[in-house]
């Protein structure tokens, strides 16, 4: 049994102010949930009668029961709000790290977490990726003094406008490590492209350095991911079966190790770039010390552990 603190925060490193659920909205949710609950109870009673006739000990032994519970959970989840909704006709800033979303609510976050661990039995084969998705939506609600991944990225976003050379800033590399540790691959690749070696006037003088940055970006963007599908705009190599995932992972991890041992690092004169990129490689190689340093909340560390240390685990 573990505890997840969700809610309004204040001060340095605390959670983002969440979108409050007012009385009218709560009444809408309560009234809207009644038909769904009545349908679930009706189905439960029908299955209970069937279980008694078939000498089963409980309704939960019926495969249909968990499908009914999942349908109920999805219905309630929709009543609690759509976390993917974005403003219409929004023009995305190429230097934006975090996408603009509706502010999350603790109610929706807690409901989805319960669904992940207790309701959706089909999720167990790709639990790590489901946690990645959950953190992308609700990491801003996790309270922690030292700051979550969201907090680090949000802070860096605020100072990015005044930075001329991002690779000289420690928060840039800390944000990259934090985002990679929880599998936010699109964020990592986007931030790597902020690196000064990509500027037209720098390409010739920093060719080796830029080559290393790009090599890491390619590895991040091709990381194998065990999940049914990849949403639009999300990076990674989607593997739908366990054998395909294991094969792709072993090949990819070998490429990561090969780059980590490359002789080109000696030719990289910018120390922060060299150290920062090496740290990203160590995270992809499952170095527990670097993963622990990059995360601050147990859910973040939990997700990173499954992603990089025990990727083949079936819950």
UniProtKB/TrEMBL annotation:
Superkingdom per UniProt: Eukaryota
Function recorded in the entry: Functions as a component of the nuclear pore complex (NPC).
Gene Ontology cellular component terms for the protein in this record: nuclear membrane; nuclear pore outer ring
Name of the molecule in the record: Nuclear pore complex protein Nup85
Pfam families in the cross-refs: Nucleopor_Nup85 (PF07575)
Record organism: Aegilops tauschii subsp. strangulata (Goatgrass)
Keyword list, A-Z: Membrane, mRNA transport, Nuclear pore complex, Nucleus, Protein transport, Translocation, Transport
Main localization category: nucleus
Compartments it resides in: Nucleus, Nuclear pore complex
Biological-process GO terms, alphabetical: mRNA export from nucleus; positive regulation of DNA-templated transcription; protein import into nucleus
InterPro entries tied to this protein: Nucleoporin_Nup85
Subunit (UniProt): Component of the nuclear pore complex (NPC).
Keyword match Protein transport: yes
Record GO terms (molecular function): structural constituent of nuclear pore
Family membership noted in the UniProt record: Belongs to the nucleoporin Nup85 family.
């Amino acid at each position: 049994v573990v505890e997840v603190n969700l809610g309004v925060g204040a001060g340095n490193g605390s959670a983002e102010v969440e979108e409050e659920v007012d009385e009218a909205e709560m009444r809408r949710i309560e009234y809207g949930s009644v038909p769904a609950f009545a349908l679930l109870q009706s189905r439960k009673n029908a299955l209970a009668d069937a279980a008694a006739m078939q000498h089963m000990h409980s309704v939960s032994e019926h495969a249909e029961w968990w499908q009914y519970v999942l349908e109920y959970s999805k219905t309630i989840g929709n009543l609690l709000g759509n976390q993917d909704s974005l403003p219409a006709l929004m023009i995305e800033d190429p230097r934006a790290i975090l996408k603009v979303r509706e502010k999350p609510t603790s109610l929706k976050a807690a409901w989805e977490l319960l669904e992940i661990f207790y309701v959706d039995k089909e999720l167990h084969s790709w639990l790590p990726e489901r946690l990645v998705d959950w953190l992308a939506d609700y990491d801003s609600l996790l309270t922690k003094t030292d700051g979550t991944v969201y907090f680090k990225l949000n802070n860096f976003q605020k100072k990015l406008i005044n930075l001329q050379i991002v690779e000289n800033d420690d928060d840039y590399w800390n944000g990259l490590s934090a985002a990679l540790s929880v599998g936010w691959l699109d964020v990592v690749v986007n931030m790597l492209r902020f690196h000064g070696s990509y500027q037209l006037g720098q390409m010739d003088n920093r060719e080796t350095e830029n080559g290393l940055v790009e090599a890491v970006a390619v590895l991040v963007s091709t990381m194998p991911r065990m999940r049914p599908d990849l949403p639009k705009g999300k990076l990674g190599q989607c593997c739908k079966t366990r054998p395909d995932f294991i094969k792709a992972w072993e090949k990819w991890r070998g490429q990561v190790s090969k780059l980590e041992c490359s002789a080109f690092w000696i030719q990289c004169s910018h120390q922060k770039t060299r150290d920062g990129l090496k740290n990203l490689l160590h995270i992809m190689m499952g170095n527990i010390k670097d993963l622990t340093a990059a995360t601050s909340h147990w859910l973040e560390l939990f997700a990173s552990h499954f992603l990089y240390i025990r990727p083949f685990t079936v819950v």
